[in-house]
Amino acid sequence: MTESVIALNRFGLGARPGESDLRAPRQWLADQLDAFDPSPAALRNAPSRELLTGEIFDYRAEISELTRQRRERRRGERTSSEGNVDAQLMDTRRMANRSGRARHRELINARVRMALTTSTPFAERLVHFWTNHFAISVNGPELLRLGGLMEFDAIRPNVMGRFHDMLLAVTRDPAMLLYLNQARSIGPNSPFTQRGRGRRRREMGLNENLAREIMELHTLGVDGGYSQADVTEFARALTGWTIAGLVRAVPDRMFDTSVQPGGFGFAESLHEPGARRLMGRTYAQSGRAQAEAILADLAAHPSTARHLATKLARHFAGDEPPAALIDRLASAYRNSGGDLPAMYRVLIDAEECWVEAPLKFKTPWEWTISTFRALGERGAGQLTRRFVNEMGQPTWRPGSPAGFDDVADSWTGAAALASRVEIAQRVAEVSRDRIDARTLAPQLLGTMLSSRTARIIAGAESADQGLALLLVSPEFLRR
Amino acid sequence: MIDRRRFLRNGAAGAASLVFLPHIACAQAETDRRLVFIILRGAADALSMVAPTGDPQYETARRDFAGHSEGGARLDSFFTLHPALAETARLYASGDAAIFHAVASAYRDRSHFDGQNILETAGTTPYGLRDGWMNRLAGLLSGQQAEALALSSNMPMVLRGEAEASSYAPSRLPEPDVGLLSRVAMLYEGDEELHADWEQATETRELAGDVEGARRGEAATGELAARFLSDPEGPRIAAMEMGGWDTHRDQRRRLNRRFEALDAVLAALHSGLGPIWSNTLVIVATEFGRTVRPNGTQGSDHGTGSAALVLGGALRGGSVVADWPGLRPADLFEGRDLQPTRSLDRLFADLVADHFAIEPGLLRRTVFPAAGTTPVANGLIQT
Hints:
heterodimer; A: mainly alpha; two-stranded antiparallel sheet; B: alpha/beta; Alkaline Phosphatase, subunit A; 9-stranded mixed β-sheet; two-stranded antiparallel ribbon; 13 helices; disordered N terminus
């Protein structure tokens, strides 16, 4: 019984009523590694990449037309009788932001739907984990549309595969290329710069942002044994990794015809020529194969194994993860050639993850999702968005490439707790007619439900108060 | 007991409903009458609300609580109103309020959930009826174009059912109610980290004066209800709810605040309804009473016999109606609670029948199946 509750709440996304008695909890988890569906029905209603990319191109076309008009007017080629172009520009940007936020909401709704309806909640939790590992923070008309797609298209299909494949998919993802400024990074000695020297240098040049974050956050970790020179070399190798059609200075003719507009494209003419040397190795490959070889070596590096092992252990075995578990996870990674399910199996087998006392304080996202899994889905998408925003964890918007913290200290405190109590009360008011907290509590928490909490819920002065108390009980706030 | 709704629902024969429908049509009357039902969730302490200060056992039975009535309005030689209910006292003095003491629904256990369900469904067993009594009443008043209204973010049980009803809450949701906050504190007593956070959170809240803000919010809900009910095309019946009555600890301070809030709501209704007040009946009730003796934490525990506060311009008030059971240990229900001597459901049935001029037998059959046979409030409504 206890293992069942742990499997559902610590490994999964929270028990649904009637689920709390799994016959073989560890097997239930292991089965999800095979059963996970990267594109379940709940995802199919989400706006497609084609649609969203099309909207971005339309917006860009409108902006460049208006900019052209403004330029002409300033040169005196046009009279000002055609209305205020500046105002139109502002308007277009504002509209694109607004419609971008609407798309962003639709994408979040799809994520919430999947989290609530999935039959593989452990796998779904891992999707959220990896998205936060490769965090982007969405803002503006482009990223509001493309941000969520990175999770759907780069993370989900690779969550049961090799880390190297996920790393490659994320590094090629348009949202990541935009967010960390890679799309505009140009080799100082590339043909493009050479040709345009003196004419349109402007701010175009090498941008180290993505290279640095790949090494610091995605792979090796901050103390993973790389230097600033390594970052710069990697950034040079990455030049040419960009998005077809979305970077003004990078015309479409730079890409071969197989490249989809709005998708990843390698532009040879932006690429810094020559061999690169980093972390003691020489990469003599040409073109995009050069950065690919570096990514492969970064994925295979022991520092990466340890970095990923530490984060996974922290997510499941507590804020101060046991060193022995980190060791086992790291060696599973190394021995399997970076196979992620090999690490997940270590977690499932690790006694450190099956400690009866709760090991983690739920983040706002985890708490909200587990709440709606417990209470049902009515209006959950909209409410989840609002609640996680209020609690300081807006979806896909952590504000930094480091993602949201995965330790309790970031989510506890007086104000945070008061906000959860207030939200619990609002949720409970809506659900009270359908749900009796006295019967729900043991269904969700099983043997983890303390007699104190059960007593206080039963003594609540109304049905909605009882439900609110269940949601803010120490047992339900943690996993 | 025949339950018409169940009969209709189960009724295999459509003909059966045809037989019944004209009957109901007789009960339909265009009405200018208004009914407001205020539910005090959490079991309000009736002996604090209306203290039997004239009972020779009062000081002995109430112990530390005996002094809580000091400064309250004397209602008659026997009963004293809680000092925080100042506006209510004025309404009582002008004949616009009455108290029915030692009343109870059909419920005799001590669970808030179940007790409130019975208070709102007017059934005999928890969850035995699937609709609320005000909704069934709305069915009888269905000649009205306007729906019944709940001043609540969600439809309370008392208005749930087949008849049309809507709910409306002020856009800003209220702060968590006092009862919830104190229970959360209990929840975290064994948890060092959460306890510390919560202590700090409640201190901040007190400092920010949010309690005052919440109270103002409740009065505003009263004003809102008055506005809706004043509209000639608006609802005729409305339900409101107030939490925070479950005073297991620190009863004096907390009830002071709660009664102040209740008083403000009633005053807001009275002034907001203006001329409509003379056509209005307000019933304030709670799911059950509390123990007569204080407990060890300056509070009281779940009890049985309670009191209902009835107000309105249509009322011939100015009296406390009670078949007083006494406060000696032997007088108490199960040796601890005020013994209920009158049926709360029958009180509702009598008042509502008079107020809306509905045939009492029909009303009892369809809306208050658990109302007892002894009349509780005959002739108190001016018709």
